[in-house]
Amino acid sequence: MNCTMKDVARVGGVSLGTVSNVLNGIPTVTEKNRQKVLAAIQQLNFSPNYAARTLKTRRSRCIGLIIPDINNPFYSEFARGVEDSVQAMGYNLFLCNSDRNAAKEREYMDALLERMVDGLILFKTHMPVEEVVDFSSRFSIVLVDTGRDINIGCDIIKVDDYLGVQQALEYLWNFNHRRIAMIAGTKDSLSSLDRIRSYNDFFISKKYSLPAPGIQHGHYDWHSGYDCANIILDRENQPTAIIAANDLMAIGAIKAIQERGLSVPDDISVIGYDDIDIASLCTPTLTTIRQPKYKMGEHSVRCLLNRIESRNSGQDIAPIITTLKTEIIVRNSVSFCETNTQRRSV
Amino acid sequence: MNCTMKDVARVGGVSLGTVSNVLNGIPTVTEKNRQKVLAAIQQLNFSPNYAARTLKTRRSRCIGLIIPDINNPFYSEFARGVEDSVQAMGYNLFLCNSDRNAAKEREYMDALLERMVDGLILFKTHMPVEEVVDFSSRFSIVLVDTGRDINIGCDIIKVDDYLGVQQALEYLWNFNHRRIAMIAGTKDSLSSLDRIRSYNDFFISKKYSLPAPGIQHGHYDWHSGYDCANIILDRENQPTAIIAANDLMAIGAIKAIQERGLSVPDDISVIGYDDIDIASLCTPTLTTIRQPKYKMGEHSVRCLLNRIESRNSGQDIAPIITTLKTEIIVRNSVSFCETNTQRRSV
DNA sequence: TTGAAAGCGATACCAG
DNA sequence: CTGGTATCGCTTTCAA
Description:
Radius of gyration of chain A: 26 Å
Strand order of the largest sheet of chain A: 2-1-3-4-5-11
Number of helices of chain A: 12
Largest interface: A-B, 47 and 47 residues
Number of strands of chain A: 12
Shape of chain A: elongated
Oligomer: homodimer
Order of helices and strands of chain A: HHHHEHEHEHEEHEHEHEHEEHEE
Distance between the termini of chain A: 69 Å
């Protein structure tokens, strides 16, 4: 039960060092002694004390995860990917919700430091760059969707938002949509700016003047999607399609459209972003741009453990920036637009 | 930076013991020495090493949370309640996903034990009772929604499922519904059995023979809600209302109903259970029985920390069983039933 | 190959 | 009230 390696050594009739060697798989132990140790461990139901091990080795086999909010389906799926990978590698995970709040982030970072976590996955940091740099000198950090274009020696993982918006617009374009409005994210976020740039570039590349309904900025919750859609729909020149920066806002937009007695997709098409679970449950089911949330989580862990590994063995590998691809998921919230031209078979 | 209390003692010109006393808020330190220590801490940017403290005190100020799946909105909201409370009390949280799998649960329990967590919140354990008892002798455990009626010295937190179903049925009854079908949970779960008992009791208390469409058992995901609804709708004697064991299955049922060209709530009313975020986003918005998920998380932490406290001070308080209340959230998936009798003003 | 002994960084006791 | 010291359980030299 509550016993130590010393007890194991005594019962097994070997020394403490030998027990340690067996536990750590060091091959210099004779088979006879191995067996003695294993038997003693079994008999005493021994399990090692991580605090002691951590104190000595300065490695805890724990990592920290800081995300804005675990109760947001986007982040919970990411977190699931992280946790599964971490677990598979024999690590454990500290969960921290930052609420997009720099002070809370800091507090967690300090706590994780004191707990000697081996590394940290930081999703959407809100701290000033210098501070992140400062922390990153003290433990390995992987930055996910940094929100700003920082390059500070940390590994960075992001999603190709430029591509995602191109995929959405190309799809709508092929369905004959031209007047396409956008409900974007907050202006301070890098991924949001990427998407807006992509939106503008698209129409330029099609040699088409920018659609009148234009861009509205929301806050990623469904209320703001609802509000933005209402502003857009109040304009004279109504869009035939709306593209939203996340699924929740897309669903809010659908609500706004339906409340006006219009139909999605018959009157107005809507396309979302993220592909959270709700997307296949709402009515109509939502055509959307999938972000590889779970895979992103797995990849973050892989990156982080590599970095920890390399840091431990002294050789510092160069920081890696990974950009993951999006994918369009076709469901029922987009249909052929008959307003602009003659109907075309699809 | 990377310095110890010894360094602080040296720089501050005091002894190690004094530094420790300051850090632990022991009031016997003179103000002059306090200041010296504080200044030294500041100057060195010292932060304590939790591994060492844990090793010595056998307390880590960490707790573990084992839930089936963080990516399920029901559990993620619960987890959010847990994490917020834990954080407020100066603890940190290990997140573990059991996937309703006893072997995984065990593995996590062992890991948490080695990490010397001060306690554990275990949501829906799938291990045999004796095993839980065994573990509970080694650290404080709070059991949430145990799934079986076990009484083993642990604190237990559950939701009054009997009440919840009564609330739903009473509401439907007042809207003139009589033929009410139920999509229940799996048969092995206690809360599921409670709900079925409540369903049966209700009709007995109303002196009404049990409705023909009866009960179907699902698996809590929306596909199984869809399948169960189809089985129910294929029967000769169609229900006028369906009550589901969670919101996801309710939404699946709504899909099945709509695919048959029927309307919710005009033709068939549906009522859910849980009140997850999606409930207010789907079409129609879902009338449902709210479980106080976040509050349950907070309460679990309060219970656990009390128990840890009492265990540390030697006095063992009796295990506490808390039953939280449900609440009906009225939205748009239920309407007055005109089939059975004359229309009645509501 | 194995065993003895020196820490890791804190806490807590006891003497002064 | 303070300072010295043993101790928590493990890893890691270093001799033997």
